[in-house]
Amino acid sequence: MGDAIEAFEHGLLQVATGHQATFAACVDEATLRAASAKLIGPSGELTKLLKLMPSLPGDRRKALGQRANELKREVTASFDARLSALVQAARQADLEGPAVDPTLPGRSLGRGSPHPITRTADALLEVFASIGFEVTDAPEIELADFNFTRLGFPPDHPATDMQDSFFVRGATSARFEDQVLLRTHTSNAQVHVMSSRRELPIACVSAGKVYRRDDDATHSPMFHQVEGFWVDRGISFSHLKGVLTTFVKRMFGASVPVRFRPSYFPFVEPGGELDVGCTICRPFDEAGSDAQRERTASCRVCKGTGWLEVLGCGMIHPVVFEHCGWDPTTVTGFAFGMGIDRIAMLRHGVKDIRLLYENDIRFLSQL
Predict the structure, then answer these.
(1) What pTM was estimated for this model as a whole?
(2) Which end of the chain is more exposed for a tag (fewer CB within 10 A), N or C?
């Protein structure tokens, strides 16, 4: 116990006798704040001493604790005084500095540019428009009927739960289809167009914001999607593969490989996912070389696989056709959807998708 008391008192003495000289040596606010953090910050010297309180004898704990708290107030007062002095000195230096010439021309503002996600969305729509798709739009505040029911989501699907989607308060109807929510995907554009048109062919693409109750290191509660579909008589999976392969080649370059994998989505049957060769580690360049294998093995984006999932796709489910007033025995079609944020990341070689949302102009101006 004696050693603990001695160490505690020695620590208090060091802080008490050294903090004023430490603060006085700081010549700017950043240095001063850093010095303060070393003394009374979460990992500062005085904070560490306070964490030793439980190891002190009970009869001395109160007195030593009071001394430590008084010292903390003293350090804080010294910090405030030095900060005020630095601010005053900087202000005085401005006043005594060279006079401002009001006749000089003002500094022009740099020209801005659209956000990389906006530019990517425009590029995606341009690619599909060049293939023959019509650009359409759909509401972001949507009925559950268009967002879920007409797309073939079963009533017990997890996405229809209020813990997974943003439902709007105040809906009075007891019917699930009449509930209002922020759309969880841009697939509602498909339903709106197919429900209002009766002439074939129909080939549309839509882009916009979507919302889901996800918020962690790899998910955002708001993100961006592109939805496209083509409906006509005799549409097959080969048309889907041809359109999406053309899209990849025009968007990422002719050398980027493409592969399709089977997958499940409620509104398509059969369904699949499209992968492209990772545009970060580029395993298709120098394929088979030791440098390529090492680059791919260390790639955090594709996790060493050399492939990145880009979109989900498939043949439109007969239930969707029926809900939209079409006879699934006479028409067929395909649909696809992708995240614009992921495409922007691949297009510009961004290794962390969160950088696109931090709004750091120094970073965004490089893209």
Answers:
(1) 0.65
(2) N
